[in-house]
C-alpha cells in the first residue's frame, strides 16, 4: 500500500460501523450510553462506599481522641488526689507527736521545749521529702522580688555597711515547692539612697 493512500475508517468512535443504518446506529448509541451510565453508577457506588468507610474511620478516631482525653484527665485527677494524700499521710506523724506532747500532764518547760524541737525537726523532714524548701535570706542579701515580699523599707543610717535594696531583717520565712514560690519571705529592706 502506498504511503500517500488514505485509509477510510470502518467504525465510528463508539464502535458502530460507518455504513450502519440509523436504527443500528441509534441502538448502538443507546447501548453505549447505558454502558457508560452503568460504569458511572458503579464508580459512584464505590465512591459512596469509600466515603462511608472514611466517615466511620473519622468517627472512630474522634471517639479515640475523646477517650484518650478523658483517661488523661482521670489520671491527672488521681495523681493530684494521691499526691495530696501522700503529703497528708506524712503529716500524720507530726500530728501524733504534737498530741503525745500535749497529753503529758507533768512535763517540765525543758521537756516541752525538747518535744517541740523534735516535732519541728519531724515537720521539716516531711516538708523536705515533699520538695518544700525554706526561703530564709540572710541580712544583707539582695532583695529578690520573686522570692521576697518587702513589708517595709527602712532608711540606712549614714556610715552603715548596709547597702541599698538589701534585706535588713526577715519577719517570716518563705517557702518554695518544686522551685515555685509557695509563700514569699516577708522582709524589711534598706531604702535606696
TrEMBL record:
The protein's location, in the record's own words, is: Cytoplasm
The entry's cellular-component GO terms read: cytosol
Please list which residues make up the signal peptide: none
GO terms in the biological process aspect are: protein folding
Could you list this entry's UniProt keywords, alphabetically sorted: Chaperone, Coiled coil, Cytoplasm, Stress response
Cytoplasm as UniProt keyword: yes
Molecular function per GO: adenyl-nucleotide exchange factor activity; protein homodimerization activity; protein-folding chaperone binding; unfolded protein binding
Q: Which domain of life is it from?
A: Bacteria
Q: Which residues form a coiled coil?
A: 37-75
**Pfam families in UniProt:** GrpE
Region described as Disordered: 1-33
Does Chaperone show up as a keyword for this record?
Answer: yes
Q: Which HAMAP family match?
A: GrpE
Similarity remark: Belongs to the GrpE family.
Assembly behavior: Homodimer.
Q: Its biological function?
A: Participates actively in the response to hyperosmotic and heat shock by preventing the aggregation of stress-denatured proteins, in association with DnaK and GrpE. It is the nucleotide exchange factor for DnaK and may function as a thermosensor. Unfolded proteins bind initially to DnaJ; upon interaction with the DnaJ-bound protein, DnaK hydrolyzes its bound ATP, resulting in the formation of a stable complex. GrpE releases ADP from DnaK; ATP binding to DnaK triggers the release of the substrate protein, thus completing the reaction cycle.
Protein name in the entry: Protein GrpE
The organism of origin for this protein: Ramlibacter lithotrophicus
Lineage runs: Bacteria, Pseudomonadati, Pseudomonadota, Betaproteobacteria, Burkholderiales
Amino acid at each position: 500500500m502506498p504511503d500517500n493512500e488514505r485509509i477510510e475508517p470502518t467504525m465510528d468512535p463508539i464502535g458502530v460501523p460507518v455504513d450502519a443504518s440509523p436504527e443500528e446506529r441509534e441502538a448502538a448509541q443507546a447501548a453505549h450510553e447505558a454502558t457508560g451510565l452503568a460504569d458511572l453508577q458503579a464508580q459512584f457506588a464505590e465512591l459512596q462506599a469509600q466515603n462511608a468507610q472514611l466517615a466511620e474511620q473519622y468517627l472512630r478516631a474522634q471517639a479515640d481522641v475523646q477517650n484518650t482525653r478523658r483517661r488523661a484527665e482521670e489520671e491527672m485527677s488521681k495523681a493530684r488526689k494521691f499526691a495530696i494524700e501522700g503529703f497528708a499521710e506524712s503529716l500524720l506523724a507530726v500530728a501524733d507527736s504534737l498530741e503525745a506532747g500535749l497529753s503529758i500532764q507533768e512535763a517540765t518547760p525543758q521537756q516541752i521545749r525538747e518535744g517541740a524541737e523534735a516535732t519541728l525537726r519531724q515537720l521539716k523532714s516531711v516538708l523536705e521529702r515533699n520538695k518544700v524548701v525554706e526561703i530564709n535570706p540572710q541580712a544583707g542579701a539582695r532583695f529578690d522580688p520573686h522570692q521576697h515580699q518587702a513589708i517595709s523599707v527602712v532608711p540606712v543610717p549614714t556610715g552603715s555597711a548596709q547597702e541599698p535594696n538589701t534585706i535588713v531583717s526577715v519577719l517570716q520565712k518563705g517557702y518554695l515547692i518544686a522551685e515555685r514560690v509557695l509563700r514569699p519571705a516577708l522582709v524589711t529592706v534598706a531604702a535606696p539612697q
